[in-house]
Amino acid sequence: MSGRFCVSLTRATDDPDRATVAFVVANAALGCDQDTIVFLNIDGVRLAVQGVAEQVNEEGFAPLKELMDNFVEGGGKILVCSPCFNKRKLDAEKLVAGATIVGGAKLVEFLAQGAPAISY
Length: 120
Fold this sequence. Notes:
The chain is an alpha/beta fold. The protein has one domain (4-119): Hypothetical Protein Ychn, Chain: A, CATH 3.40.1260. Helix content is 34%, strand content 20%. The protein has 4 helices and 5 strands. The protein has helices at 16-31, 64-73, 82-87, 104-112, and strands at 4-9, 35-40, 77-81, 99-102, 117-119. A 5-stranded parallel beta sheet has the order 4-3-2-1-5. Strand 1, helix 1 (16-31) and strand 2 (35-40) form a beta-alpha-beta unit. Helix 1 runs parallel beside helix 2 (64-73). The radius of gyration is 13 Å and the shape is globular. The two termini are 23 Å apart.
């Protein structure tokens, strides 16, 4: 077992259920002592911008902003797909805490060490 876990998230405000559940699972992985990353790609990169997660409050779950804050405070890392972020012309000066813009090689490096991954 690698001791690592990856959650890939392609959705944001367009699918609050998937966006929320992705961070619920990511927090659960941290709770199981896994070195955990959330890889935001495609439209999921929008969640890396301050103020966006506050718009997502899926019934039956904690607010997404709270889940994201708990994830980062628990040691989780949010990796943001650089080409996806740039394509959408988002502002890198407004990244949420714990988010880092990276190229695909960073994800491959993490996964190549045997990390299981789940996608939303």
